[in-house]
Amino acid sequence: MKKQPELIRGLGLIGAGAVVAGTVIGTGIFLVPSSIARQVDSVGLVFLVWVVGGLLSLAGALSYAELGAALPEAGGEYIYLRRAYGPLWGFLYGWEQFVIGKTGSIATIATAFALFLGYFFGALNEPLVGVAGWSLTGAQMISLGAIIGLTVINYLGIIVGGAVQVVFTILKIAAILGLVVLGFAFGDGRWSNFTPFFTAPAGAGTLSAFGVALVAALWAYDGWNNLSMVGGEVRDPERNIPRALIFGVLLVAGVYMLANAVYFYLLPLEAVITSPRVAQDAARSFLGEWGGVAITVGALISTFATLNAAILSGARVPYAMARDRLFFRHMADVHPVHRSPAKALLLQCVFSCVLILIFGQSPDAFDRLFTYTIFGLWIFYGATTAAVFVLRRKEPDLPRPYRTLGYPWVPGIFVVV
């Protein structure tokens, strides 16, 4: 009997780290700071929100690192949930990811990519084709093209997809750090914008406002878990998965803190609060209109890398489910040459494109897709992190090359929050 081709471990430490950082650094750092500032109305509290969000994400990453090192298989969270709670939890998670979570996320990111491109081409939202009340816009065409193009790239295998991820992750981090360096070196900023660092609490609503702001920060930190889905393709996973998760989250947190520092150096708190696109306004403050153009290009690169990581990682869940006969059987097929989950990638592409066609013609397509996607996401984050406790008790002899630092407090705090 001919042996079926399998996925290869073609993702090294740098590639794995690029999946973490490249997924997390998306549109959030360009848009979210003003939302956080509006909620807490204090420079110091803005930074505190980012610090707490980073620490919570690190707590989750430390917990996932134990699971990923112990169970380095394609499918990530699906594997952990099935192993800890039984096939039903794996089944529910996998179908939620395919119908809502991952395909919805891909459609949302692709829509954001088209929105940023609209900075240069204002007519993208004009209908190109209209039939019986349904229309296809230029923005939808851009979103569809981005999804299809990156699916083709990842169809060629983990080495190709991983290389694209590394290149665009480096470019996006360089763009943000470029703004930081140029802003501090040449910007007409004021250190007085940081004072008073902490303003007096406005009342009992401060804690509530902090919580709302923290949700926005956690959205900007979201995506570090994607590495778990390609665990079966990481070289030396017992060492590289924990390292990539931990260092990736720390790198993102550092970049976010530097970006916020330059925002407040160039713009007063009031300007950050009222700015819909704080990164562009910060760049324009010392580079003029070319600054806005440069930041928009950086946002396009950032969104492109995030979309690539989502497509690369997402197809591994239906692939893993199909191997367990919980999904369409042919989705477990691996391309004999490229060694990619080819059919799972194509099905994921089709369903993501369908979501673009359904939701994408609306003026508020991004918000509608984001709302559609976010449902259930954090329930499975909490359940997966709790699997650290369950598997410690259920399978005490399971080899664990890495054990969660600060157990049981670190995973416990993440689950509670």
Structure description:
The structure is a single chain. The protein contains 18 helices and two strands. By secondary structure, the chain is mostly helical. The chain has a single domain, classed as Amino acid/polyamine transporter I (Up-down Bundle). It has a two-stranded antiparallel ribbon. A hairpin with a 2-residue loop joins strand 1 and strand 2. Helix 1 crosses helix 13 and helix 3 packs across helix 18.
In CATH, what is the class? Mainly Alpha
CATH topology: Amino acid/polyamine transporter I
Put simply, the count of helices is 18
Globular, elongated, flat, extended or rod-shaped: what is the shape? globular
Low-pLDDT segments, ≥5 res? none
- Share of residues in strands: under 5%
CATH architecture group name: Up-down Bundle
Outline of this structure?
This protein is mainly α and 417 residues long.
Secondary structure layout plus pairing:
Blueprint: H1 13-24, H2 28-40, H3 43-70, H4 77-85, H5 87-117, E1 127-131, E2 134-137, H6 138-155, H7 158-186, H8 205-221, H9 226-229, H10 237-266, H11 269-274, H12 278-287, H13 289-314, H14 316-323, H15 342-359, H16 365-374, H17 377-394, H18 409-416
Antiparallel strand pairs: 1-2
Helix pairs in contact: 1-7, 1-10, 1-13, 2-3, 2-8, 3-8, 3-10, 3-17, 3-18, 4-5, 4-17, 5-6, 5-13, 5-15, 5-16, 6-7, 6-13, 6-15, 7-10, 7-13, 10-12, 12-13, 17-18
